[in-house]
């Protein structure tokens, strides 16, 4: 069984990753997997909806390319096909919108239960369990009491304090990593721009040298 220290840290890391990526991005990815790559009943409906949408777009383009005066019969036929396909597409889209709303509620609930809900449950269940003990005399009594807040024995670090410390460290490391990535990209862009300027300058000097040679000849 993994240590409770590692479990709390991993849970805080998971919460940070979910908040960084974003709930909407995760939901969109899960919806794509659910409707595209998994053999679910709704995947056929999604594929049919995409085909109907492509058909509506194609018929609309053909209608726009056909003159309603010179080729009225062809235009009227395309219009009937377009209206029929659009009606079927709207019906299918309405059904999929209802499925998507139910899927969104399920994912939102599962995400909360798997992150914050699990965190609250662990903190409540292990509220009296010390994460680790502080050597006697290292901190004054009031500091030891704060570190054991709310229900851990005095002299130990409670799960709430440990979780807050893990969350702070994860956020600091994440912010530092993001800043470093931005700095590396900016330096790479500046280096590329300098290389292009140097190359252009070298080409210009080469051209001037060739012009001087031609004058001497």
Shape designation: elongated
- How far the N terminus sits from the C terminus, by CA atoms, comes to 87 Å
Q: What level of helicity do the residues show?
A: over 70%
Strand content: under 5%
Number of strands: 0
- Average predicted confidence as pLDDT: 85
* Main sheet attributes: strand count, strand direction, barrel closure: none
Rg (C-alpha, Å): 32 Å
Q: Note the total helix count.
A: 6
Order of helices and strands: HHHHHH
Q: Give the class from helix and strand content and strand pairing.
A: mainly alpha
Q: Give start-end ranges of low-pLDDT stretches.
A: 212-217
Description of the structure:
The protein is mostly helical and 217 residues long. It is 82% helix and 0% strand. The protein is built from six helices and no strands. The protein has helices at residues 4-21, 23-37, 41-65, 72-125, 141-147, 159-216. Helix 2 packs across helix 4. The longest helix has 58 residues, at 159-216. Mean pLDDT is 85; it is low at 212-217.
Outline of the structure:
It is built from six helices and no strands. It has 217 residues and is mostly helical.
List the helices and strands and how they pair.
Blueprint: H1 4-21, H2 23-37, H3 41-65, H4 72-125, H5 141-147, H6 159-216
Features:
mainly alpha; 6 helices; disordered C terminus; elongated; 217 residues
């Amino acid at each position: 069984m993994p240590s409770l220290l590692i479990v709390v840290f991993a849970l805080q890391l998971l919460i940070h990753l979910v908040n960084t990526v974003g709930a909407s991005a995760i939901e969109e990815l899960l919806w794509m997997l659910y409707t595209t790559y998994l053999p679910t009943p709704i995947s056929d409906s999604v594929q049919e909806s995409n085909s109907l949408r492509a058909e509506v777009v194609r018929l609309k383009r053909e209608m726009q390319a056909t003159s309603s005066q010179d080729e009225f019969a062809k235009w009227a036929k395309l219009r009937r096909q377009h209206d029929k396909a659009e009606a079927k597409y709207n019906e299918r889209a309405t059904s999929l919108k209802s499925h998507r709303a139910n899927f969104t509620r399920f994912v939102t609930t599962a995400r909360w239960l798997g992150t914050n809900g699990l965190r609250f449950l662990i903190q409540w269940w292990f509220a009296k369990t010390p994460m680790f003990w502080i050597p006697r005399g290292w901190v004054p009594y009031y500091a030891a009491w704060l570190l054991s807040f709310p229900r851990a024995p005095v002299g130990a670090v409670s799960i709430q304090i440990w979780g807050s410390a893990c969350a702070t460290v994860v956020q600091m490391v994440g912010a530092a990593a993001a800043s470093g990535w931005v700095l590396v990209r900016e330096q790479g862009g500046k280096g590329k721009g300098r290389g292009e300027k140097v190359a252009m300058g070298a080409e210009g000097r080469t051209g001037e040298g060739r012009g001087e040679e031609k004058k001497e000849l």
